Amino acid sequence: METEAYGGPDDLASHARFASTARNSAMSGPAGRAYVYLVYGMYDCLNVVTGPQGASGAVLIRAAAPIAGMDLMRAARMDHARRRRSAGAGGAGGAGAAAARIAALPDRHLARGPGLVGAAFGLDTGWTGTDLCDPASALRIEPGPTDVAAGEVAFGPRVGVGYAGPRWSAVPWRCWIADDPSVSPAR
DNA sequence: ACATTGATTACCT
DNA sequence: GGTAATCAATGTC
């Protein structure tokens, strides 16, 4: 698993750098809610709202290691690929080739990237506001099967935030479980 | 290495 | 009210 933290208006890499709007208002709402946004017009990214009420903050889920429901995740990934093809995206490849690739994907790669987490869970921006702490929610946070030792967590600079300037692109707010094969490839 | 995508924001009238 | 510029990425070449 792999995450990235995003701060409030001071953080130039955060959506909170904009004035409060319909899209990012969830970031300043109650903690523990979902904030799903569309990036590059194709990929839905899942964030967990953090911090006290009124302060903006969120944690982007960059990658996840599936522990159950891999067949459903695989099916969701194929749906996503099919929709992209009908819009004509992703280079010149065909949907059949994409489906074959997804079928051959190891379980641990089903959600290996921020956009892929959204695709594997079938998320879209409509999930924004879902209470991730409510056991009745279809999307929620639960304790994992094993604890992670502090020494297994690695920290590094965030990905793809060069536009925010050196001060914010260098801050080590990306964290992941060391040696976890589900983390997204290095960039 | 390169092409693809559309919601969202900021700016203009 | 309408338009241009922006982007926390992936997949195929």
Q: How would you characterize the overall build of this protein?
A:
The chain has 187 residues and is α+β, with helices and mostly antiparallel strands. Helices cover 21% and strands 17% of the residues. It has four helices and six strands, in the order ββββαααβαβ. The chain has a six-stranded antiparallel β-sheet with strand order 2-3-4-1-6-5. Strand 2 and strand 3 form a beta hairpin. Helix 1 packs antiparallel against helix 2 (95-104) and helix 1 packs across helix 3 (114-121). It is globular. The model has no long low-confidence stretch (mean pLDDT 88).
What would you say about this model in short?
This protein is an alpha+beta fold. The chain has four helices and six strands; from the N terminus they run E-E-E-E-H-H-H-E-H-E.
Number of distinct helices: 4
* Beta-strand content bin: 15-25%
Rg from alpha-carbon coordinates: 17 Å
Largest sheet: 6 strands, antiparallel
CA distance, first residue to last residue:
16 Å
Major β-sheet strand ordering? 2-3-4-1-6-5
Mean pLDDT: 88
**What gross morphology would you assign?**
globular
Runs in which pLDDT lies below 50 for 5 or more consecutive residues are none
Give me the strand/helix succession: EEEEHHHEHE
**Structural class designation:** alpha+beta
The helicity comes to 10-25%
Number of strands: 6
Task: Break the fold down into its secondary structure elements and pairings.
Blueprint lengths: L1 E5 L27 E6 L3 E7 L8 E6 L6 H18 L7 H10 L9 H8 L31 E4 L9 H4 L4 E4 L10
Antiparallel strand pairs: 1-4, 1-6, 2-3, 3-4, 5-6
Helix pairs in contact: 1-2, 1-3
The chain binds a DNA duplex (13 and 13 nucleotides) through strand 2, strand 3, helix 1, helix 2 and helix 3.
